[in-house]
Design brief:
mainly alpha, Helix Hairpins, minor pseudopilin epsh fold, 50% helix, globular, binds manganese (II) ion
Length: 209
């Protein structure tokens, strides 16, 4: 069993992000988001690889970076569910309470250099998150020339498939916010900024360089 992909345990309580994302959202919704949605991606990924068991035990991030190595018959399933697994695993760390409340140091300097200011970066990220039509993710990434970019991806597509390293992620699928925010995605995005663990984001930024 240890060869199979596994759902990572959440390292914080479902209600830990109150009041930014309220108790009802966190207890009911996070429980569903992690224990049902994320678990389903992991289960589907394991099922897909029953026909290609040599992939069991490889990091899902590596598989996504080399998605064209995956047999064509299961590639779309792996893209959707492997992306779902990797994206959510990353997202839980972004949300993990604790850590810095704002970017500092090298990351802050690079954000200011790349986007003009921290506010301008956040505005660009907000726009990416708000205007992603349907389901997807907003990202801050580092590309292979070590440059920062903001964009969104559709469905569970991962920046790893483009050779980019995720630094910050926001899930904008309706399942991430509908219970509390209904159709008010901008309110959810605003709440998100108050719970970002910038220590994790800075760590991923440093790793990417
Ligand atoms: Mn999700």
């Amino acid at each position: 069993m240890s060869q199979l992909f596994e759902l990572p345990a959440l390292t914080f309580a479902f209600n830990a992000l109150e009041p930014a994302i309220d108790a009802r959202t966190m207890e009911i919704h996070m429980e569903i988001h992690h224990d049902k949605h994320h678990a389903a991606y992991v289960n589907n990924l394991n099922k897909a690889f029953e026909s290609a068991p040599e992939f069991y035990g490889q990091p899902v991030e590596k598989i996504l970076k080399e998605i064209n190595q995956v047999p064509e018959s299961i590639r779309t399933t792996v893209r959707n569910n492997g992306g779902g697994h990797a994206n959510h695993t990353f997202f839980w760390d972004v949300l993990n309470p604790g850590g810095k409340k704002a970017p500092t140091g090298d990351l802050l300097a690079d954000l200011e250099k790349s986007f003009g200011s921290l506010d301008a970066f956040m505005e660009k990220f907000n726009t990416a998150a708000t205007t992603r039509f349907g389901s997807g993710w907003a990202w801050l990434v580092v590309d292979n020339e070590k440059k920062l970019h903001v964009y969104s991806t559709a469905n569970q597509d991962s920046p790893l498939m483009e050779g980019h390293s995720p630094v910050l992620a926001l899930d904008v699928w309706e399942h991430a916010y509908y219970l509390n925010y209904q159709n008010r995605r901008p309110d959810y995005i605003k709440a998100f900024w108050s719970v970002v663990n910038w220590s994790f984001v800075e760590q991923e930024y440093q790793k990417s360089r």
